[in-house]
Amino acid sequence: MFTVKFSGLTDVGRVRDHNEDAFLIDNSLFIVADGMGGAAAGEVASSIAIKTISEDLSDFSYANDEEAIKILQNSIKKTDKEIKVQMEQDPAFHGMGTTLVIALHIDSRLLIGNVGDSRAYIITNPNAGKQKESDENFISNAAAKTGVMPKFEMDKKNKPDEGIIRLTEDHSVVMEMVNSGVISEEDIRTHPMRNRITRCLGSIGNSNPDFLWHEISNGDTLLLCSDGLWEMVHEDLILAIVNSSSDPEEICKRLITAANNSGGSDNITAITAMFEKK
Length: 278
Hints:
- This protein has helices at residues 41-56, 65-89, 135-143, 173-179, 227-230, 235-242, 248-261, and strands at residues 2-11, 21-26, 29-36, 97-98, 100-106, 109-115, 119-124, 163-166, 210-215, 221-225, 268-277.
- The protein is an alpha+beta fold.
- The protein has a single domain, classed as 4-Layer Sandwich (Phosphatase 2c, domain 1), CATH 3.60.40.10.
- Strands 2, 3, 4, 5, 6 and 9 form a 6-stranded antiparallel sheet that branches.
- Strand 2 (21-26) and strand 3 (29-36) form a beta hairpin.
- The longest helix has 25 residues, at 65-89.
- The radius of gyration is 18 Å and the shape is globular.
């Protein structure tokens, strides 16, 4: 069994005039939704996702892994329909939708689901939180120099067990281009089509969400985030920031600061959950 510390934070960024992101933390349930559609429509879509799924999973129980995935999939499909109903009832909401990344903490595992380009990462570090707080100066200086600029390199010579793993795969045009070998993953952040997603709630069609199980290890940190974070902050810096503090709220603040220091071109949302074995 694991104890878990968690926090979440959202920020409008430096360019947008309102925040269409939404997030929820409810004990073992973690959700980030990144709405789209202009005016207030994106906010409506992301709030529908949070409300519908959290209500559906308020009394979550399952007999086996397949049933757990089916329950989560049905809830996500229900959300898709709810957003479509709102669009039909109000022309102002036409074209709205939302991404979704969700994690359920179940015993020693995480069930992860996603639609769109919001992401789930696992950051590994058996010594998480033991670095000195003076690392904050290192993080602040690095944050000013990274983002969409060249990859930030940190010294891993004496830290062989640290790492960052992207658990989810974006449903986007640029990720399809990566998978077909047209561009590299490093090109995603600056590609002119980086904001075109191929799946979202509100127009998921015949597609399904992606699901995976992750076996938690001692010292793991789960990060759920919108593209306003990962497009602005390279994974190497995300790793350094997460492993710079044992306080999940402070980590979220530092991640958002780094994204804003790199331009803050979109709304920014982050949830961190830190796991330690009892």
